[in-house]
Amino acid sequence: MAKEHFLELNNLYKYFDDVKAVDNISISIEAGELVSFIGPSGCGKTTLLRTIGGFHKQDSGEIILDGERIDNLSPEKRSTGMVFQNYALFPHMTVYENVAYGLKQKKIKRDRHEHIMTALEQVELGEHADRKPSELSGGQQQRVAIARCLVLKPKVLLLDEPLSNLDANLRLVLREEIRKIKDKLNLTVIFVTHDQEEAISISDRIAVLNGGSIQQLDKPDVIYNYPNNKFVSTFVGHANFLTGKIVMAEGRRCFDAGILRFPVDDSVSDTENEEFTVLIRPEQIKINEESSIKGTLTNAVYNGNFTRYFIQVGEQELMVDEFNPRDAINYQKGDHIGVELPSAPHTIHYTEF
């Protein structure tokens, strides 16, 4: 007998007039897993999240949670908890009262105080129960919104860009806190974000959406290193694309992209003289003065721990990321630089270009 997944989305469609916001999406999520939905504005990630939570009704398809079909249930009956982008806290209520609100709506009186304080302790806000939202930082407000969901013991926690209103440093801290809360409580979490770095750092798996459909669903390292198509490869991280073919040169297999020719191993296409495209991440290219491949530095962007160089090799501009040790060479515009390319670049099907 096949194993039942904890959350299943089967052939979901959602239209807004003639716009197909969710296009035949089918995925399975396991208990205790944190899955991020990422993609550009209008890709359908928030619509999909809100459909799971019951705030949108799908036009067809089904949603099954823990063996129960829930897509005909109202949001409060789905055993899901939603944290909205603006947190949706009641400004006239204290932190304690905000967390208590859901319990009151469900008329849960037994051990109410203990449930509220447990939820606040889980997000480390037990000492702030009597404060109003206006007396809290943005990060603390976000944790109140999470506590308000946790107190109802949801089976799935739905987070709609919960960090987007926070400054960069606080985002880093809070995404680690979300991960810790998830691991501590073994929560199943769906996390919507437009921030690729955020998704890579926090997720067990990532679903990359575009045009209402999932382009790829996989572990972060697979999404980054082995993208299914050009869209995924450019939306998650930066990329160099080289189009060429395999040739034999001096007894070695080489990828020949015109002025760029470099040795490759057997993992790259085994068909000689058939044109295809490879993906090379900027950090996979090394500056090597002894390399036979030479180019001219056209720009350098300092990013603290690394510098991104733009090197023109013939008609091809390469992005190259080099870490910045204290004794790093400070290359200048116009310098002639040797570059070494990887022997196992990832192949992207040529018809996508």
Automatic annotation (TrEMBL):
* Gene3D superfamilies reported in the protein's UniProt record: 2.40.50.100, P-loop containing nucleotide triphosphate hydrolases (3.40.50.300)
Residue stretches making up the ABC transporter domain: 7-236
Cellular compartments per GO CC: ATP-binding cassette (ABC) transporter complex
> EC number(s) in its UniProt entry?
7.6.2.9
**Keyword set for this entry?**
ATP-binding, Nucleotide-binding, Transport
Q: Which residues form the signal peptide?
A: none
Q: Does the keyword Membrane apply?
A: no
**The reaction(s) this protein catalyses:** a quaternary ammonium(out) + ATP + H2O = a quaternary ammonium(in) + ADP + phosphate + H(+)
Mind telling me which residue stretches traverse the membrane in this protein? none
Q: Which InterPro entries match?
A: AAA+_ATPase (IPR003593), ABC_SmlMolc_Importer (IPR050093), ABC_transporter-like_ATP-bd (IPR003439), ABC_transporter-like_CS (IPR017871), Mo/tungstate-bd_C_term_dom (IPR008995), P-loop_NTPase (IPR027417), Transp-assoc_OB_typ2 (IPR013611)
Molecular-function annotations in GO: ABC-type quaternary ammonium compound transporting activity; ATP binding; ATP hydrolysis activity
Subunit architecture = The complex is composed of two ATP-binding proteins (OpuCA), two transmembrane proteins (OpuCB and OpuCD) and a solute-binding protein (OpuCC).
- Protein name as catalogued: Carnitine transport ATP-binding protein OpuCA
Q: Which organism is it from?
A: Lentibacillus salicampi
